[in-house]
Amino acid sequence: MAVVRLDSKECPECGMPLVGYGGSRKSDIMIIVGQADESDFESGKVLHGSWNKPLYQELSKRKIDMYSCSLVNYYPHEKPSTRTKVAREQWERCLKLSTDKLLKEADGKRFILCVGSEVTKFFLGYGDVTCSGIPLTSKFFSAEMVMGIQSIQYVSTNSCGEFCLALDRFSEEVFKRRKYGNNK
Ligand SMILES: [Zn+2]
Fold first, then answer.
1. Whole-model pTM?
2. What is the mean pLDDT of residues 73-94?
3. I need a labelling partner for 118 at 20 to 30 A (CA). Which of 71, 76, 130, 178 fits?
């Protein structure tokens, strides 16, 4: 089996340019978004483009610096057209590879925020972020608290009430658990 370099700039499966992880890898908080935005492609790092504003600002208000968190993307790169069976299978392999990489990166993280319905559905099993703002655990992660939240694109065009409430809860849980440990 070929050795897959996790730090390569192109997807080892299909050759498309990868969007790299951002923020600080040492953080105990990890933020997972579905796909990178076009504004991320310029910097080559996820959540480093202008689209991150709603999340960056709302986290800042709650005393969490987004760039001090580990920032990762579930999609490794732009989603290609998946109209044919071959293309769909190819995309499945790209996703599998990026998921394996993401799980390695999540090792040792205490708190994980799943942004958007696709990420939340995959890692927490709830569709359409019906679990928004509820502290949960995931079979995929050793993290003591995993939370789902609406997508950034959603709050950019809609009211951000639920999004803000969920971030209230997320930051409360993080600070409480950092202070007192995992005693719920
Ligand atoms: Zn690929």
1. 0.92
2. 94
3. 178
- Centre of ligand 1 from the C-alpha of residue 61, in Å: 36
Q: pLDDT above 70 covers what percent of the chain?
A: 95
What counts of helices (H) and strands (E) characterise the chain? 6, 5
Neighbours of ion ligand 1 (CB under 5 A): 11, 13-14, 16, 94
Q: Mean pLDDT across the stretch 117-127?
A: 93
174, 108 contact by CB (below 8 A): no
CATH number, domain 22-179, options 3.30.70.940, 3.40.470.10, 3.40.50.150, 3.40.50.1000:
3.40.470.10
The structural domains of the chain, with segments of one domain joined by +, span: 22-179
Give me ligand 1 centre to Cα 135, in Å.
32
